[in-house]
Design a protein that fits this description.
alpha+beta, 26% strand
């Protein structure tokens, strides 16, 4: 009888051990699943941010359904008429606050386009000013033009194109190519692009600018940096910037990102994410977060 009881106790104990192990493993699997779901929930927003930053929706691999197949690299000539239909997908830099910026060039000229996302603002206390800052050589300044306030640029700029569009019939429009001469922004530099003036459509909130290489003393082999944004001319509030990593808000703001090109040659996709400095990589954040989550998960299962 003792032998049978001993065996019975062994069997019961063994069964209880199995049940306990099963519960432990079940709890561990449950905890692992929690971390899996947590990781997925954490990763999806990061990947969504990555898709926005990299402009996946406007990348060179995605062609507009309303356009025929196009060459997706420079050189590309743009007609300066405030009609954005001749721009290619890989020339759309995107921007904040519904602003869509465009950039490309041919063998002699830089072309800039923008869609404001609504009618240009033009009241006395709320009017739009468009800014294109360029760094083409050593020297320059990180201080923007003083237009009811200043901002800090992400590089030492040599050139600035400023444009204030106005409604039809309003003669208070303004555009100017400026150069940093070592001590200040020199105004009224010779501007020959598009016959000396930009093109804009007030109601559609679109504008296009041609900047000849000769006007800013560069060639196709020149390296160049760009940052583009809008301000409210009445108080210098910054908005609509590209690259989108740059801030928005009241003056002064410190811009940190820019578009960088080692040359203005052919065969370049202007909106390639590799042209953004600093290069925005949310994947790096994912690679940092994943090991932390996994290590934390392993620690919890061992407790």
């Amino acid at each position: 009888m003792k032998s049978i009881s001993s065996r019975y106790g062994f069997v019961c104990g063994y069964g209880a051990s199995i049940m306990h192990e099963g519960k432990r493993r079940g709890a561990q699997r449950s905890l692992n699943m929690k971390f899996v779901f947590g990781f997925v929930a954490l990763s999806l927003p990061l990947l969504l941010m990555l898709s926005v930053i990299y402009g996946i929706s406007s990348s060179s691999s995605n062609l507009s359904a309303t356009k025929s197949v196009q060459p997706l690299t420079t050189y590309h000539n743009i007609t300066i008429d405030a009609n954005l239909s001749d721009w290619h997908n890989d020339e759309n830099l995107t921007g904040k606050d519904n602003a869509n910026w465009y950039l490309t060039w041919n063998e002699t000229t830089i072309f800039v386009g923008v869609s404001r996302g609504e009618t240009f603002h033009g009241s006395t206390d709320d009017y739009d000013v468009l800014w294109v800052y360029m760094d083409t050589t050593s020297g320059g300044t990180t201080t923007s033009v003083d237009w009811n306030g200043m901002h800090t640029l992400p590089f030492s700029a040599d050139w600035c194109f400023v444009f204030k569009p106005r409604p039809y019939g309003d003669t208070d429009y303004y555009w100017n190519l400026r150069y940093w001469n070592g001590s200040g922004w020199q105004t009224d530099m010779p501007y020959t692009g598009n016959g000396g003036y930009p093109a804009w459509h007030w109601d559609n909130g679109t504008a296009e600018i041609a900047i000849p290489f000769a006007d800013i003393n560069i060639t196709t082999s020149s390296a160049i940096k760009f940052v583009l944004y809008f301000t409210n001319g009445a108080n210098n509030w910054l908005f609509g910037a590209t690259p989108v990593q740059n801030p928005t808000g009241a003056s002064p703001q410190v811009l940190t990102a820019y578009w960088n090109y080692s040359s203005l040659g052919s065969g370049i996709a202007p909106n390639s994410s590799g042209n953004i400095v600093p290069e925005a990589s949310m994947l790096s954040a994912v690679f940092v977060v994943v090991p932390v989550v996994l290590r934390y998960g392993r620690k919890k299962t061992q407790e």
